[in-house]
Design a protein that fits this description.
Two copies of one chain form a homodimer. The first copy, chain A, is mostly helical. Chain A is built from 16 helices and two strands. Chain A has a two-stranded antiparallel sheet with strand order 1-2. Chains A, B: Its EC number is 2.5.1.1, 2.5.1.10, 2.5.1.29.
């Protein structure tokens, strides 16, 4: 099998014609915002290299292969649509979370303004669902968007909530990341002609993988290398986000967990020292260990679901490689 | 025939179960924002009376009747979906236009914050298209949303543009309002089983009516009674919007038109006196007369398109009554 980085690159290239087709259909102003956000050009429209990770379309294509299918136009459309929904959600989330950095660059709203970011997001969302409207896949994608929004709603609410249970946090992660990764997998299987039962199995694989993905994301935002992640360290901590390792630490009933709660209860803005101390406390309270164990559990269920599906050798190997990448990534 | 106000009320009531069903499916926080925006309750969730005009669903229902159909669940779903897309666009437009008043009340973002307004809009948009995903109507609605976004994009761009032609302004109005009214009509006809040709005729009727609607809207925002419109007078002028009467005045090659251009070229914020003077100049430059004549032309084409369709007597009378309401409304 090709190295997994190769797989992701291939997925990115495979969906580019469909993405271009959709983005080129936007009015000039929004086209520029969309291409900047996707990573095709800089703020002035000059071509650049380096785009997102393309894990979602890679999952769609690998699931199609795992069910014995190939990268038909229908499969590619599904993969492109899933990636566009992801792009839409990042555009709007960055506005809502006031995040000024995305993929190592200023976020779209901080370059083009909030209005353009909102409108471009609306268009990408609509175009993504529209792309699948002539198949029976559109409602699956739309349902994923609704679940994504429910997860984002919980995420916003948790910032103000004093106590959030681990179950609520995991449900949020399942909504925010599990839904769309699950749908990426389900759409790949369905577009390749899998039975409803098989498609549902691939969906389970993707959902479990998605929760693991989110936990790794949360951990990277606390302990990751900003040079690799492309996001300033401690953003989530400074925003007092109840990310999963934080929630685990706060609920740990340890001295470090109680101190963390006190730090979070202050109303001052976090400086670098406070952010570093908070990261330390999350680790001392067991948040990092819990996160690693939960990632293992989720990846374990994902791989069991996959094994039960009896995927083709190639497709199965690709999906296992993507799962390993999600666990071990540093960005 | 029932009075047209009765028609609108009936349309509103007829789609309420579908709207409720969708809004009740949202997470609590977003449900509260959506119901406030629609006009079901106040900011604290206490029931209130008085909602939007429901012109779009009334058009859907009347077009279904005009083609000999009835208000089947499919027709009602289409009408509800169109209204939800309208609600989505108002939610996001108010954020983008920084409008603090909507339907006589503080706009949703000014009560619940920008984040909640963005997210609720995303959910209503997705739920609207989702509602039609099991029919062949979803792509029609999605295309209308894309056209709506293109119109909104032009609208935002015109604020900064020094010169905008009347053709560009009319194209913008066709995108912002024509597309969705045209789609409201087309969906009603299609959901009632009309032929593609008939559906396209109803679409033309709705598009022409939509442009007339937008011109009347623009005029009301300059010369309307704020007590009736529910929006502060002169908002559009103060934002230097190239609304249609303004564009006509600026392009009029009259002394008043040139003075208006000078007033618009200043960088100071408009006070009440400047706004009142600008309104006067638009009128003196012929912007008001042009608007009235263009409304008549558009309504004329709409009614001719309708006559060519040979609608049922009841449905035709309803559509003509709605067209008359659009022309003569004061809010």
């Amino acid at each position: 099998m090709r190295p997994v980085t190769q797989l992701l690159l291939e997925a990115r290239e495979a969906i580019t014609p469909a993405l271009r087709d959709i983005v080129d259909g936007l009015p000039d102003t929004l086209r520029r915002v969309a291409g900047y956000h996707i990573g095709w050009w800089d703020a002035e429209g000059r071509p650049i290299s380096g785009t997102g990770k393309a894990i979602r379309p890679a999952l769609t294509l690998a699931c199609a292969r795992a069910t014995g299918g190939t990268a038909t136009p229908g499969v590619l459309d599904a993969a492109a649509a899933v990636e566009l929904v992801h792009d839409f959600s990042l555009l709007h989330d960055d506005v809502m979370d006031n995040d000024t950095t995305r993929r190592h660059r200023p976020s779209a709203w901080s370059v083009f303004g909030v209005d353009q970011a909102i409108l471009t997001g609306d268009m990408l969302l609509t175009a993504a669902i529209r792309r699948l409207c002539d198949t029976d896949l559109a409602p699956v994608l739309a349902d994923a968007v609704l679940e994504l929004g429910t997860g984002q709603c919980a995420d916003l609410a948790f910032e103000d909530a004093s106590e959030v249970s681990l179950a609520e946090c995991l449900a949020m992660a399942e909504g925010k990341t599990g839904a769309i990764l699950g749908t990426a997998c389900e759409l790949g299987a369905r577009a390749a002609g899998a039975t409803a039962q098989a498609a549902s199995g691939y969906r389970t694989f993707g959902r479990q993988l998605g929760v693991a993905f989110q936990i790794v994301d949360d951990a990277l935002s606390i302990w990751g290398d900003p040079l690799r992640t492309g996001k300033p360290i401690g953003n989530d901590l400074a925003a007092r986000k109840k990310s999963l390792p934080v929630a685990a630490a706060l609920l740990s009933d340890t001295a470090a967990g109680r101190e963390l709660a006190q730090v979070f209860a202050t109303t001052d803005e976090f400086d670098q020292t406070t952010t570093a101390r908070a990261a330390e406390l999350v680790e001392q309270a067991g948040g990092r260990t819990w996160a690693a164990a939960e990632v293992d559990r989720r990846i374990g269920s994902a791989l069991r679901a996959l094994a039960d599906l009896g995927p083709t050798p190639d497709g199965g190997a690709e999906l296992r490689a993507i799962a390993a990448l999600v666990t071990n990534r540093d960005h």
